[in-house]
Amino acid sequence: MANKVKTVWYCTSCGNESPKWMGRCPACGEWNTMVEQPKESRKAVPGASVPAGERHRPVQLRDISAAGEARISLHNGEVDRLLGGGIVPGSLVLIGGEPGIGKSTLSLQIPLHCSDLRTLYVTGEESVNQVKMRAERLGGDTGQCFIFSETLMENILAEARSMMPQLMIVDSVQTMFTETLDSAPGSVSQIKEVAAQLLRFAKETGVPVILIGHITKDGFIAGPKILEHIVDVVLQFEGENRGSYRILRSIKNRFGSTSELAVFEMTGQGLREVSNPSELLIPMHEQGLSGTAVSAMLDGSRPFLFEVQALVSSAAYGTAQRSATGFDVRRLNMLLAVLERRAGFHLSAKDVFLNMAGGLRVSDPACDLAVICAVLSSNFDFAIPSDVCFAGEVGLSGEIRPVGQTDRRIAEAARLGFSKIFVSSFSSFDRKSAEGIQVVKVADVPALVKALFK
Ligand code: TYD
Ligand code: MG
């Protein structure tokens, strides 16, 4: 009988393994994420079993010294901040994003600006000459940066162990492969194994490793998704490829807070840090445009302001369309229902389109208030003055609920020169943060409409 290759099915979203195809992954509940992979015949890994003498023993927590938490600065203010104040020695950081968004640019820019760090930059995608050309574009010091064009993990780790760099960068996980597995580079099992080997290397030697991973829009040729459990930190690039702004978001961080965000601008000389994103996300136009409202939002620990845009028009077909970019469309539907039932606005026969400025993806409930104001502003063609901003959550009975850290939102709005901010009547804040700005407290949607459109 012919020797048939045995296969298993993996979920590209969570890495769950199954002997047969399933439409929906039973572990994470995602649809259409199962891909077929040949079943691995694992060869013996040399050095995988540790000699008994070197085995670790359990240690009492109080006997462990907290030293070693020293972080290494990457001389890139925004990346350092996202990581929680620099990269932790021995950590594995994954930078994910769609092709062409700037992962290679950022990861090469880091060593060029860290003249004090001996860096090993491993590339499986470009030749050393191509990297050189890119480095010349980016400028900076090339003295301590070693480029290694290689894809076989065994060679990479041997080289890294003999060189002992202070920072290692691997571009990208999909191009690397290990001889211990039979499958092709980029397959789910190779990606997992490559990441596991890098993690072992990082933990054993204390060398921080930055790993690049591609993801596609629909997340199909995944990788980064199944790696999230393995790595210590996940930073993800977002943003429209066509625009020049890129958002780098921390999705997971074992050594710092998550949902922090940094904004970069792609220029001819690489990625420039935008340390004050509010300035590019708030209105660039003169007063008098309807359908826009500014929200004071908090992303991670940083408050910033951005514009919410809405367009309300009569529905061309029987059923009204609702579409939202960067905002949960179910939440938009809920807010529209609240406007209809609690404040008497008839929007059910209208198409409503919502957009968050700058390609931002928003999950802070404090944006509700700006969303309903933008919708009403477009519906009545009434412009909201451009020096007014909003921060509040809208409840199902039309009440406006307080949001966390109102002080900091108010202070940021005041700093950017806004003269009025609408918040919930129930929010408590420090008077000092409200210097130079008028804080308008509103209890529910009808009160808001009265205060704003009177
Ligand atoms: P790249 O880092 O190669 O993307 P990734 O590694 O995520 O696939 O970025 C490629 C894009 O960035 C490409 O469209 C060209 C642009 N770019 C600049 O605009 N300026 C620069 O200085 C560099 C190096 C690239
Ligand atoms: Mg690249």
Q: What is the rounded distance between the termini?
A: 83 Å
Give me the number of helical elements. 11
Low-confidence stretches: 46-53
Q: What does the main sheet amount to?
A: 9 strands, mixed
Side by side, the strands of the main sheet go: 6-5-7-8-4-9-10-11-12
Bound molecule kinds, no repeats: thymidine-5'-diphosphate, magnesium ion
- Overall helicity: 10-25%
Judged by helices, strands and strand pairing, the structural class is: alpha/beta
What proportion strand? 25-35%
Whole-angstrom Rg: 26 Å
Shape assignment: globular
How many DSSP-defined strands?
Answer: 21
- What is the average of the pLDDT values? 85
3D structure, described in words:
The chain has helices at 77-83, 103-113, 128-138, 153-163, 188-205, 224-227, 278-281, 329-343, 368-380, 406-415, 445-453, and strands at residues 7-11, 17-18, 34-38, 92-97, 119-123, 145-149, 167-171, 209-214, 233-238, 245-253, 261-267, 270-274, 292-299, 302-314, 322-325, 350-356, 388-390, 393-394, 400-401, 420-424, 438-442. With 454 residues, the protein is an alpha/beta fold. The N and C termini lie far apart (83 Å). It has eleven helices and 21 strands. It has a nine-stranded mixed beta sheet with strand order 6-5-7-8-4-9-10-11-12, with helices on both faces. It has a seven-stranded mixed beta sheet with strand order 15-16-14-13-17-20-21. Helix 2 (103-113) packs across helix 3. The protein is globular. The structure holds thymidine-5'-diphosphate and magnesium ion. The site of thymidine-5'-diphosphate has 15 residues, from helix 2 and helix 3. Thymidine-5'-diphosphate binds at residues 97, 99-105, 134, 137-138, 266, 268-270.
